[in-house]
Amino acid sequence: MLMNAGGRHVDLAFSSHSFFRGGHAQTLAGLYLPSQTPDYSAIQHEVRLPDGDAIVLHDDQPLGWTPSSRVALLIHGLAGCHGSGYMRRVASKLNRLGVRTFRLDMRGMGAAAGRARGLAHAGRHADAHAALTTIGELCPRSPIVMIGFSLGGNITLNCLALESPLPAHVERAIVVSPPTDLQECCDQLRHGVRRAYDRYLLHLLCSAWLRAGGKLPARRPRSLFEFDDLITAPHSGFRNAEDYYAQSSSGPRMSGISTPVRILAAADDPMVPVRSIRKFPRSKSVELCVTATGGHLGFIGRRKEVPDRRWMDHLILRWLGPWESVHDPLTDPCFGHEPD
Q1: What is the spatial distance between Cα 319 and Cα 278, in angstroms, rounded to a whole number?
Q2: Which residue has the higher pLDDT, 213 or 83?
Q3: How far, CA to CA in Å, does 89 sit from each of 199, 290, 296?
Q4: What is the DSSP secondary structure assignment for residue 335, as one 8-state letter?
């Protein structure tokens, strides 16, 4: 039974590529399948934060963009950056539609490495708000769409729930595979083959921490939980990992979001169990859209339906249109049905 105080839940019809069946295959294919994107040509904007740290926005302005045209803020996932594959792909496709994009590098990541003493983490919603404020100053007449991937999705939801006031032109948000219950997601990675994801993320985080000038403790963390307990929490004002997860999880706050949000999640996501999103009450502004398969930021589809197989990207572009047109399964073949 779905626990939902108001937000709509819709099952989406997604047909995975025949070579990539199941959540693990979809996740790995999403990460490693190559994609062609334009050479880097963005303008960088440093955003100074109240504590003296800085984050960086990578601004891609397409030809023909006008001051009142739409812009999008893209927020990367754990240990990602502006150069992550999903960030480059989606920004490029948005640019081709005439949308100006700002890819955010959180503290210590990408071009923000060396500009911050603090760590990027799931509770940095104030940093996202600072990025929105800067975008609002650069594009004062443009509607803004927030697009958050994985941990960036959790940050997006927290920003919408907790930061007030939001810039006036934030019109909607799209969130993919958000870990809305950080403790449950971390626990998920402790078991079976999912421990491989835990080790992979731990390696990325340790490398990012060292690049940012941090030092690893004598007892090196052996899991994502230990990294958060030994490094993230003490360097970010939390008592321990459990306190960090409790304070930074967006799930309990979804009922307070008034901005229209659409969440895309897969039932076979090996990192973010869909139950960890479904269990929280959501406001009427927050719609949860679930596919049977797709993995974590995978959603590799059939070429006959999506030419480059990147169904997730295709759906994000469609969701930038009038939302009413995708509320009706009869007018949008991408949609399946609402569960009872």
Answers
A1: 21
A2: 83
A3: 26, 22, 16
A4: B
